[in-house]
Amino acid sequence: MALAFAARGLAKRYGTIEALGGVDLEIREGELVGLLGPNGAGKSTLVKIACGLVRPSSGSAEICGAPAGSRAARASLGYLAELFRFPGWASANEVLQLHQRLAGSEGGAQERAELLELVALTDAGERNVDAMSKGMQQRLGIAQALVGSPRLLLLDEPTSALDPVGRRTVRGLLEELRRRGVSVLLNSHLLSEVELVCDRVVILRRGSVVAAGRPEDLAEPGVIEIETAKGVRRFPGAGREEAPRLVAELVAAGERIYGVRVVTASLEETYIEAIEEAGG
Amino acid sequence: MSAVATIVGYTLRESLRRRVFLVVLILTIAFLSLYALGTRQAFKDVEDFAGGVTAGLDATTLAGATLFGLSMFGTLFLGAVLGIFLTLGVVRGDAERGLLQPLVVRPVGRATFLLSRLLAAGVVCAVYVCLVYTAALLITYWTGGWWPDRVVIPALALAGGVVIVAALSLLGSVFLSATANGIAVFMAFGAGLVAGLLGQIGEALNSHTLERVATVSSWLLPFEALYQDALNAISADSFGLTRVALQLGPFGGAQAGGDLLWPYAFAYLAALVGLALLGFARRDL
C-alpha cells in the first residue's frame, strides 16, 4: 500500500538539545496513527517537520512521495497546530475561505458548509473568531485542516480544548475520515482517545520510538481471575483466548466455577511501562 | 484568485477590520488641519512683515518651503509609523501568536507569503504618503500661493523612503519579536533623521565631519537620503539670499541625493528583501 508519510532516520537538534534522534515512521494511506509520548518527547517537532515548519538536522521525511516542506507535500496535507490562532476579526467562513484560496481548493461555499457541519459549527459560519469559545475555535481549526480534502491530516493535540461532547465529535470525525481513506497522524496526550480510534500507536520518548504497534497488541495480556468455591484463582500472564482452557481444566479437576474475569493491561499501563523502561 | 492577491487582500482586510485605517485617517485629518491652520497663520505673518518680497529675500518662498518641508517631515514620520506597524510582527510576532503556522503550511511558499505582505504594506504606505503629500501641497498653495520647484520627485522619494522603512521592519520581523523589532526600527528611523539634521547643521557651519557623518548615515539608511533629496528638490531653483536663508532653516540644508541615489535605494531594498527571504526560509516555526 502507498505511503502517506515516511520518515527515515529523522533527527532534529536545537543547539545542544536533541528533539528527535533518528525516528523511522511510516503511515499508510487510510491509516490512523496515534503519536504518544510525554512532554518534550519530540512529537510536535516530528509533526512540524512533516509540515515543513521545521527543518530536520538529518534524515528525511516524505508526504505522499514528495519531500516534506515542498509545495507538492504541502498541497497533500492538512495541519492543525497545537498552539494556533485565527484572526479574531474574521468569521468562520472567512477563515475557511482564506484557506481555500491558499490551498487552491475550488470547493467554494459548499465545501465550507460541509466542513462546518462536520465539526458541528453549522450555525457559527458568520460568527467572528473573537466571539467563539476555545472549543469552537479548536473545531474551526480542524475544519481548516480539512480544507481542500488533504490526503494526510496532521493533528497536534486536536482535542486539548474540547469538552467531552466535543471530543466525541472529533472521534466521530476521525472515524469518518478513516472511511474516506484519509491518513491521519494524531498527536495526543489522551491515551483513551488514541486507543479508541487509532489503527496503530507510536510511543516516543526523548526523540526516539520506544514502542509501536496496534493498540490491542500493545495492551499486553494481564491476568485471568476465576472465582471458584475455594476462592479466586489468579493466572498471571494468561490472555483472553486461554480462559476457556483454564476453566475446562478447573472443571475437570472438580472445581465449581462462579465467575471468570479477564484483566488486560490498558494502553495507559503499556505506555507508562514503555516510558519507564526507556529511562523514566 | 492568486496567492499574492489573497495575502494582500487578507492584509488589507485585517487593517480595515482592526480599524487601523480609521485611526490613521482621523490622525491624518488632525495633522492636516493643524498644518492648514499653521500655514495660513505663517503666510499671513510673512505677508504682514515682509510684503512677500523684500531686499532680495523671497519671504513667501522661504515660508512656503520651510512649512512644506515640515509637512514632509510629518508625512515621512506618519508613513514610517504606518509601515512599521503593518510589518513589525509579520514573521516572528505572528508565529509566536500562532497566526502564521496555519498559513505557511499551505502550498503558497514562504517567499510568496513574505513578498505579498511587503507588497501590501508598501502599497498602503506609498499611497498614504502620496495622498498626505498632495493634501499638504494643496493646503500650502491655497493658503500661501506657494508651489514647490519639483512636485513629483519629492513625493516619490518620500514614498520610497517609507517603503524602505517598511522593508527594514519586515526584515527585523524575521529575527526579532514584535516589540523588539518595533523598538529597533523606530530607533534606526530616529537615528537616520538625527544624522540628517546633523548634516544640515554641518552644511550651515561648513563642518566636514558632520557632513561626513550625515553622508555615511544616508548610505546606511537610505530612507534618510531620499528624504533629504525630497527636501532639496522642493526649493531646488531658489537662489541668492532666499537660498541662504533656506539653508539656515531647519529644512533648508538638505543635500541632493545625486544620480546614484535611486539605483542604490532599489539595490538596498532588494538586499533587505533578499535577506528577509533567506532568513525566513531557514527559520524554524
Give the structure's gist in a few sentences.
Chain A is an alpha/beta fold and 280 residues long. In chain A, 35% of the residues lie in helices and 29% in strands.
Index terms:
heterodimer, A: 280 residues, alpha/beta, 10 helices, 13 strands, 35% helix, 29% strand, globular, B: 285 residues, mainly alpha, two-stranded antiparallel sheet, 12 helices
Question: What can you tell me about this protein's structure?
Answer:
Chain A is an alpha/beta fold. In chain A, 35% of the residues lie in helices and 29% in strands. Chain A contains 10 helices and 13 strands. Chain A has helices at residues 43-51, 71-75, 92-103, 108-118, 134-145, 164-180, 191-197, 215-218, 243-252, 267-277, and strands at residues 3-14, 17-28, 32-36, 58-63, 66-67, 77-80, 152-156, 183-187, 200-205, 208-213, 223-228, 231-236, 257-263. In chain A, helix 3 (92-103) crosses helix 4. Chain A is globular. Chain A starts with a strand and ends with a helix. Chain B has helices spanning 3-17, 20-50, 59-87, 92-97, 101-104, 110-144, 152-175, 178-205, 208-220, 222-234, 240-248, 261-282; strands at 53-54, 57-58. Chain B is globular. Chain B has a two-stranded antiparallel sheet with strand order 1-2. By secondary structure, chain B is mainly α. In chain B, strand 1 and strand 2 (57-58) form a beta hairpin. Chain B contains 12 helices and 2 strands; from the N terminus they run ααββαααααααααα. At the A-B interface, helix 2 and helix 3 of A face helix 1 and helix 5 of B.
